[in-house]
Amino acid sequence: MEVSFALDGLLALLFVHLRVVSFLIIAPPFNSSSIPMRVRGMIAFAVALPIFPRYIGQAQIAGTGELVSAVVWQIFAGLALGFVVHVLFAAVQAAGNLIDLFSMFAMASILDPMSNTQSAVFGRIYSLIATTLLFATGGHLLLVRGLLQTFDVVPAGPVDLGALGKIFSGDLDVLLTSALQIGGPILAVLFLTDLALGLVSRAVPSLNIFQLAFPVKTILVVSLAALAVAMMPGSLEAVVEAILRQFADVSRAVGG
Question: How many CA atoms lie within 13 A of 37 on its CB side?
Answer without folding.
Answer: 3
